[in-house]
């Protein structure tokens, strides 16, 4: 199968690209390197530096002949999306519409889309399954939900078969240590902790310890990127075998608190990792945990690398090798 991985130089995309190439899929990567990096690319596939806002460029690449598109190119900071909705409207909505139209024009019928738990908004019950009400609490989540709805129409009108993969909190790095690029200016918990451990930030701000959770800090469902990559692979095989669209949650189904992760990171890295308890971050729910029963059933998918040890150890390996000069 020939697959175009859009956003394949980014954090999740690079793991997906590596995982696909490891399994013998013929892939190409398209990325504008706005948040992705060349450090995340490998010599066993081609790379096209193009922007998804450039319709002609995207359409020309699609005409090279692909069986499927995996689309992971998006802006993804929920907080920023509330301050700069226009950026998210253009990059996520316009960019995806370009990709969809170019894919349809080129006759591509299989589409794997990076969706998000952010489409659900404040949890009404836990764990969150796919039937949970979809009321995004931020503009980022709104863009992902709107794209899912677009995909349903393109399925009906154009015969495009899609998999919408709703990630919970992606974390960790390639267990074999091959993906080397680090995220620029991360805002997510695990990379922030890694930057503190590596001496790049003075401390972690813990956003609230007064939540109704066992230790008072926020609880999330962290899912290793290699488990996400495996789900993309299985989603593609599923679309190939059955030509039926679907949407599934991808989570470990287990909640970890900020303080648990902080303690584990101190132990695993051997670094002190100073932390200050600050106020809650606006818009943060207390607890988010997935039900991934649908992905298990439909794809035979099961998280294998998403225990806390593996998530932190693989992340630390990536950060430690990158920043060895600043770690004493
Ligand atoms: C995790 C926990 C914070 C940073 C976001 C997006 C979501 C999805 C995943 C893409 C929370 C706490 C964090 C810090 C902290 N993105 N925290 N100090 O908010 O669950 O989800 O990323 O699809 O749409 O909203 O992830 O990593 O920011 O936070 O205490 O410096 O860590 O309060 O409890 P979040 P996160």
Characteristic terms for this protein:
single chain; 328 residues; alpha/beta; Rossmann fold; UDP-galactose 4-epimerase, domain 1; 7-stranded parallel sheet; two-stranded parallel sheet; 10 helices; 17% strand; globular; binds UDP-4-deoxy-4-formamido-beta-L-arabinopyranose
Outline the structure in words.
It is built from ten helices and 13 strands. It has 328 residues and is of the alpha/beta class. It folds into two domains: 2-171 and 223-250, Rossmann fold; 189-220 and 253-322, Alpha-Beta Complex (UDP-galactose 4-epimerase, domain 1). The strands form four sheets. A seven-stranded parallel sheet has the order 3-2-1-4-5-6-11, with helices on both faces. It has a two-stranded parallel sheet with strand order 7-10. It has a two-stranded parallel ribbon with strand order 8-13. Helix 5 links the parallel strand 5 (110-116) and strand 6. Helix 8 (258-269) packs across helix 10 (308-322). The mean pLDDT is 96. Bound molecules: UDP-4-deoxy-4-formamido-beta-L-arabinopyranose.
């Amino acid at each position: 199968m020939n697959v175009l991985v859009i956003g394949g130089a980014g954090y999740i995309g690079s793991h997906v690209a590596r995982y696909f190439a490891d399994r013998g899929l013929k892939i190409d990567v398209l990325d504008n390197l706005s948040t992705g990096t060349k450090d995340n690319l490998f010599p066993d596939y081609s790379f096209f530096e193009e922007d998804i806002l450039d319709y002609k460029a995207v359409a020309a690449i699609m005409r090279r002949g692909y069986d499927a598109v995996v689309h992971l190119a998006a802006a993804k900071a929920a907080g920023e999306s509330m301050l700069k909705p226009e950026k998210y409207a253009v990059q996520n909505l316009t960019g995806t519409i370009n990709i969809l139209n170019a894919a349809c024009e080129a006759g591509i019928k299989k589409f794997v889309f990076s969706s998000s738990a952010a489409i659900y908004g404040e949890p009404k019950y836990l764990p969150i399954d796919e039937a949970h009400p979809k009321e995004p609490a931020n503009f980022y989540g709104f863009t992902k939900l709107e794209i899912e709805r677009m995909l349903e129409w393109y399925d009906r009108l154009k015969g495009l078969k899609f998999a919408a993969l709703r990630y919970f909190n992606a974390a960790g790095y390639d267990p074999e240590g091959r993906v080397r690029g680090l995220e620029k200016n991360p805002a997510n918990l695990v990379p922030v902790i890694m930057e503190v451990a590596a001496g790049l930030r003075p401390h972690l701000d813990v956003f609230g310890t007064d939540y109704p959770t066992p230790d008072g800090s926020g609880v999330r469902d962290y899912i290793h990127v290699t488990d996400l990559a495996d789900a993309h692979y299985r989603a593609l095989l599923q679309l190939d075998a059955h030509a039926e669209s679907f949407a599934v949650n991808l989570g470990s189904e287990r909640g970890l608190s900020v303080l648990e992760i902080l303690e584990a990171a101190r132990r695993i890295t051997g670094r002190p990792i100073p932390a200050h308890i600050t106020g809650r971050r606006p818009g943060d729910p207390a607890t988010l945990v997935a039900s991934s029963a649908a992905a298990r059933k439909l794809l035979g998918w099961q998280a294998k690398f998403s225990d806390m040890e593996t998530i932190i150890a693989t992340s630390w390996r990536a950060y430690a090798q990158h920043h060895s000069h600043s770690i004493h």
